[in-house]
Amino acid sequence: MKTVDLSVVIPIYNESAGLDALFARLYPALDTLASNMSLSYELILIDDGSRDQSPAMLREQFNKRPDVTRVVLLAVNAGQHMAIKAGFEITRGATVVTLDADLQNPPEEIAKLITKIREGYDYVGGYRRERQDSAFRKYPSRILNRIRESTTKIRMRDQGCMLRAYSRPIIDAINHSNEVNLYIPALAYIYARRPTDVEVAHEERAAGESKYPLSKLIRLNFDLMTGFSLLPLQMFSMIGMITAIISTAAFIFLAIRRFMYGADAEGVFTLFSFTFMLLGVALFGMGLLGEYIGRIYQQVQSRPRYVVHAILEEKPADTNVSERTHS
Ligand code: UDP
Ligand code: MG
Fold first, then answer.
1. Less packed terminus of the chain by CB within 10 Å, N or C?
2. What is the overall mean pLDDT for the chain?
3. What is the pLDDT of residues 19-42, one digit of tens each?
4. Any atom of ligand 1 within 6 Å of the Cβ of 220
5. Sorting pLDDT into bands at 50, 70 and 90, what band is 137?
6. Is the beta carbon of 80 within 6 A of some atom in ligand 1?
7. Ligand 1 pocket, residue 77 CB under 6 Å
8. What is the C-alpha to C-alpha distance for residues 133 and 259, in angstroms, rounded to an integer?
9. SS3 at position 310
10. What own/partner pairs with CB < 8 Å and gap ≥ 24 does 295-300 have?
11. Residue range 299-323: average pLDDT?
């Protein structure tokens, strides 16, 4: 099997509006990188079950540059991180770089990551200099970064930045990880011997719109939290314990008062609001339990996490183009 120095992996979901611009900028950037840093590269494009023209455009692009391009077509939408994993499975590079398809991560910045890898770091994360997203997309992410910092042991500057470089051993470890709910930057972190972060530029989405509505973003962050920490559950046991202690004390106090001064029925509404607050906390706790249990349920089912429809690539031995179709 032909190995290369660098594999660039890009997940693509309904990005037909921006793909031409991406290719027009990406290939020259990679060719320049290859000659400046004297390395060989391959580009792995994964279509994550798009319903627009993206798969057709990827086929077309493959025909234009079959020397460096490999395309994975997934049968159905599996989510960004699963799509990246499907790409990781076929990478041949000693270093693997991930990138978004919307040109928010400038491909010219890959050189910075490679430099760090050459300095001996095995996992290089990017953090976005001035994040160019709507406030609606930016602030929830900022809060989620904060929560992850305080509930997991994962220390990365910017969990949402997908411009990242991974060395081969980390990719192999990820490929051997069988979790159903995957958060690749965090998973890589726990396998990394010497991780670091570098500042990278961030641009506005070139075309189309974000594929992460708030609901999907929240789900993704539950994946991160439940996948890497039990602290949310432990926090609920703590809250339960403290509430039980305080209410026991309050009960004893009120009972004594009852016998000394007789019954009193004031403060019914205070009681109501307090009860509802506790009810809310209890329901949230149950929901949280559900998040963990639901993931255990999916893990136990152990269904394949993505279905590869076809892989377009040049046959390694000769220059024959092949299309492996899986059914
Ligand atoms: N993406 C994907 N599958 C999905 C959702 C997104 O492959 O189900 C890809 C998308 O095409 C893009 C990258 O993941 O290349 C990041 O998505 P997006 O730019 O919408 O996320 P944001 O920048 O808003 O975080
Ligand atoms: Mg984006």
1. N
2. 91
3. 999 999 999 999 999 999 999 999
4. no
5. confident
6. yes
7. yes
8. 63
9. strand
10. 295/180, 295/181, 295/223, 295/226, 295/227, 298/180, 298/181, 299/179, 299/180
11. 83
